TrEMBL record:
InterPro entries: Thiolase, Thiolase-like, Thiolase_C, Thiolase_CS, Thiolase_N. One of its GO terms (molecular function) is acetyl-CoA C-acetyltransferase activity. Belongs to the thiolase-like superfamily. Thiolase family. The lineage of its organism: Bacteria, Bacillati, Actinomycetota, Actinomycetes, Streptosporangiales. The active site is at C89, H337, C367. It comes from Nonomuraea cypriaca. It holds the Pfam family Thiolase_N. CDD domains: thiolase. Its EC number is 2.3.1.9. It comes from the Bacteria. This is Acetyl-CoA C-acetyltransferase. Residues 259-380 form the Thiolase C-terminal domain. Residues 5-250 form the Thiolase N-terminal domain.
């Protein structure tokens, strides 16, 4: 049976909005990560067959196939192709799936899965805003409206709907967010991220975590919706960042003298209610565990994207998961969520945390626009 191995994973620090990475062109941001991945693995870049890069706002500086342009900007061989994909927030986790599937199929041996998003340069919603400005009526078309009605479709509404369904009030959400900042600050102080980060533009550490935040400060914020539960403190941060993972076949490992660090154990996808939008990690995780023949007790580390606090809270409740194993070094509420870059960044964190702690299985999942979710299970080697 064919195997797909992770032989390298690296990321930039995650920059806060208008922070230290905001002056870096998105293509150069991604190029920096790609070059760091090649340098750290020592692989011959001419042997890489494809660069699959997630990017959500493929508009302006992030348009025109940023995967290909970033590879070329990194000074890497013209013979390697590149493609840019969009599965919303899960774009670069899907890049990992496509890369692993190419290797598992036997049609490819070395593929880079990557992601990038500079939300400082290309604001969230830029592409749809441009369309609306040109007079497009309903964002998803009349056939969508016939099925779901012309109602608000947004992650903010989805987060509030989750709070209603699972009964979460803002004090619970804020306690979770506070813990995310504490974990992230502790991880940075203890150097847990040092080996996985390729510093850029003078930025060496993630800029988002607030070690000095308090529950009192969070309680003073206004909710995003009148009468709602979500505030800026319990939502992921607008961020800039990039990550890259190198996937190799057994043949490539032998030929290039690479060291497998983990194998891709299971891949799963699932769709759920697009109005709730953020709930799909729950059924997708059930599917992945069932396909893998594993239970939650087998999973040593979980990285679930903290798009909003109710997402990981509801997920943990549904699986009775040990909170100590879930986002042990903090999540996107503290560390930021650079949309298309987050999937590859989370995989980099997951791999390094398994190696640091000696864990065997890691699970990554994230909610995505349209009510979708990817789940990736890896086994540390």
């Amino acid at each position: 049976m064919a195997e797909a191995y992770i032989v390298g994973a690296v990321r930039t620090p995650v920059g806060k909005k208008k922070g230290g990475l905001s002056t870096v062109h998105p293509t150069d941001l991604a190029a920096h990560t790609l070059k760091a991945l090649i340098d750290r693995t020592g692989v011959d870049p001419a042997a890489v067959e494809d660069v699959i890069m997630g990017c959500v706002m493929q508009f302006g500086p992030q348009s025109m196939d940023i995967a290909r342009n970033a590879w070329l900007s990194a000074g890497l061989p013209e013979t390697t192709a590149g493609v840019t994909i969009d599965r919303q927030c899960g774009s670069s986790q899907q890049s990992i799936h496509f890369a692993a599937q190419g290797v598992l199929s036997g049609t490819q041996d070395l593929v880079v899965a990557a992601g990038v998003e500079s939300m400082s340069v290309v604001p969230m919603g830029s592409s749809i805003t441009a369309a609306l400005e040109k007079g497009m009526p309903f964002p998803f078309g009349e056939k969508w409206a016939e099925r779901y009605g012309k109602q608000e479709i947004s992650q903010f509404r989805g987060a509030e709907l989750m709070c209603e369904k699972w009964g979460y009030k803002r004090d619970t959400l804020e306690q979770y967010a506070f813990e995310s900042h504490q974990r992230a600050a502790k991880a940075i102080a203890n150097g847990h991220f040092k080996d996985q980060i390729a510093p850029i533009n003078g930025v060496e550490d993630d800029e988002g975590p607030r070690a000095d935040t308090t529950l009192e400060k969070m309680a003073g914020l206004k909710t995003l919706k009148e009468g709602g539960q979500i505030t800026a403190a319990t939502a992921s941060q607008i961020s800039d960042g990039s990550g890259a993972v190198l996937i190799a076949s057994e043949a490539a490992v032998r030929e290039h003298g690479l060291t497998p660090r983990a194998r891709v154990h299971q891949l799963a996808l699932m769709g759920d209610d697009p109005i709730y939008m953020l709930t799909a990690p729950i059924p997708a995780t059930r599917r992945a565990l069932e396909k893998a023949g594993l239970s939650m007790a087998d999973i040593d580390v979980v990285e679930i994207n903290e798009a909003f606090a109710p997402v990981p809270l509801a997920w943990m409740k549904e699986f009775d998961a040990d909170p100590a194993r879930v986002n042990p070094n903090g999540g996107a509420i503290a560390l930021g969520h650079p949309l298309g870059g987050t999937g590859a960044i989370l995989m980099t964190k997951l791999l390094h945390e398994l190696e640091r702690t000696g864990g065997r299985y890691g699970l990554q999942t994230m909610c995505e626009g349209g009510g979708q979710a990817n789940v990736t299970i890896i086994e540390r080697l």
